[in-house]
Design brief:
This protein is mainly alpha-helical. The chain has a domain at 29-72. It has helices at 8-38, 42-69. The protein is elongated. It starts with 7 loop residues before the first helix and ends with a helix.
Length: 72
């Protein structure tokens, strides 16, 4: 795939949108942590842990994209 020149304005818009999504993902992680602490059943605790791992991967993906594609 050829590198396409993306305007700074568009990069800034995308970065702003991704930052909002990243903040939402951080809030989801805080909620998952709280629910995990409140949960007693091991099977449910494992599920919360899996959700947290998936969310962490999503946040890492967002951050990598911002660095690569939005110069941040």
């Amino acid at each position: 795939m050829a590198n396409v020149k993306i305007e700074r304005r568009q990069k800034n818009i995308m970065r702003s949108q991704l930052e909002k999504v990243l903040e939402m993902q951080k809030e989801v992680e805080r909620e998952i942590d709280d629910f995990h602490k409140e949960t007693e059943v091991p099977e449910y605790q494992q599920f919360w842990q899996e959700l947290k791992q998936n969310n962490t991967q999503t946040m890492q993906k967002l951050a990598r994209f911002m660095v690569r594609k939005c110069n941040r």
